[in-house]
Design goal:
This protein is of the alpha/beta class and 398 residues long. The chain is 26% helix and 24% strand. It is elongated.
Length: 398
């Protein structure tokens, strides 16, 4: 081992090669605070006799099967060796896997944690191949029975519905949450936390369109206008790419703001811890969904939105106007939520406007803000049997 230490001291690790110096510097700064050395050349590191067994973090190479009697770097892949018993070393992240997991829910945070020098491993009920969303195939590193110790548990979303009835998975989340320092969910992974009883007394969020459903868990305060919510030990994030923000935020908590900024720059990711953009806060949640037609465009922000559709049903201007009135009046399909809960406090009130092809409405939202809506219907220029429907919404005074 000593001979290998000298040979590999000047080699870049796989992680530092890919990330430049970001991950190596951040990891080194963390490990120096806990007395862990990333270099095994120094005499006091290589010559100390220890009964510990060290292994290479899973990297997909043959060295995954090797064991070493001293710390240092793997002579084959260059990665920092870690104790087999999980004690000491850089922070470790356990990522839960199951069939149907969203790829970005794990890949985004994994990239951030890996850039920070954290050691990431995956855990599933069994170490058998799993199929993620869009057909991605993965093989977990560990099963529930032999998963090593970790400081962070990451619970992704995706095809979580079946797993809500999986007692083994929910039980593992419960037990693992007692072991780790931080639990983080991405997207609908929050529902698995809720099923495990971890959202009681917590403020939480998840992906837009389903976030209101979190209110089904007792004593849970729901937040729909944030990319992530930090409730102390429990961090929940909104959908998909929001997991990157949550992971970088957690890195900031564990290593400091500078380390988090270095990670974001290394990933070429624009991280703004004060950013207010969240999909669930966009103004289109007040517009009716489920209208039959081809979406031409949909764009806006938290204060205004415009959506254009090409519709053929109903097959008249009057019929489309009546349908819009009905949908808006009943909040049918508002925001595309699976369990619609109105964000409207008063209204809507309607004004037919000066044209038969227009519908105007007003309402006040649950935060006391006043809104004005306008719907217009006009014949499509290339097909007189179809109509271009434009829905506009703007907050008063915005």
């Amino acid at each position: 081992m000593n001979e290998h230490c000298k040979q590999t001291n000047d080699l870049l690790t796989r992680r530092s090669f890919i990330k430049g110096s970001a991950g190596a510097i951040v990891a080194a700064s963390y490990m120096s605070t806990i007395g862990f050395s990333t270099s095994c050349v120094e005499a006091h590191t290589c010559d100390v006799t220890t009964a510990k067994v060290y292994v290479c973090p899973p990297c997909g190479l043959p060295c995954d099967k090797l064991t070493f009697d001293q710390p240092g770097n793997c002579p084959q892949c260059g990665m920092t060796l870690v104790p087999l018993d999980g004690e000491g070393g850089p922070p470790k992240v356990a990522i839960l896997l199951y069939n149907g997991v969203e790829i970005i829910d794990i890949a985004g945070p994994w990239e951030a944690f890996g850039t920070a020098g954290f050691l990431v491993h995956t855990v599933a009920e069994k170490t058998e191949p799993l199929t993620l969303v869009f057909g991605q195939k993965v093989i977990p590193d560990y099963s529930f029975e032999n998963s090593p110790k970790a400081e962070v548990l990451l619970v992704p979303g995706g095809g979580y519905g079946t797993q809500m009835k999986n007692d083994a998975l929910i039980g593992w989340i419960k037990s693992k949450s007692n072991e780790v320092s931080h639990v983080m969910s991405v997207c609908t992974g929050a529902f698995l936390l809720g099923k495990a009883g971890l959202l009681s007394g917590q403020t939480a969020t998840c992906t837009a369109g389903m976030v209101e459903d979190l209110a089904l868990f007792p004593n849970t305060k729901v937040v729909y206008d944030a990319r992530y919510v930090d409730s102390g030990k429990i961090i929940t994030t909104a959908g998909l790419s929001s997991g990157i923000d949550g992971a970088i935020h957690l890195i900031s908590k564990m290593l400091g703001k500078g380390a988090a900024q270095r990670v974001a720059l290394g990933m070429e990711y624009r991280w703004d811890p004060d950013a207010k953009w969240a999909r669930g806060a966009m103004a289109d949640k007040y517009l009716p969904y489920g209208l039959k037609g081809k979406l031409i465009s949909t764009e806006g922000d938290i204060d205004r939105w415009e959506r254009k559709l090409l519709m053929s049903e109903p097959n008249s201007t009057a019929g489309i106007i009546d349908l819009l009135r009905q949908r808006i009046a009943t909040n049918s399909g508002m925001g595309g939520m699976s369990n619609p809960i109105s964000h409207i406090k008063t209204g809507p009130t309607f004004d037919r406007g000066g044209k038969d092809s227009e519908l105007r409405w007003k309402f006040t939202d649950d935060q006391g803000r006043k809104w004005n809506g306008l719907g217009t219907v006009e014949p499509a220029p290339d097909d007189k049997e179809k109509f271009i429907v434009t829905l506009k919404l703007a907050r008063s005074g915005a």
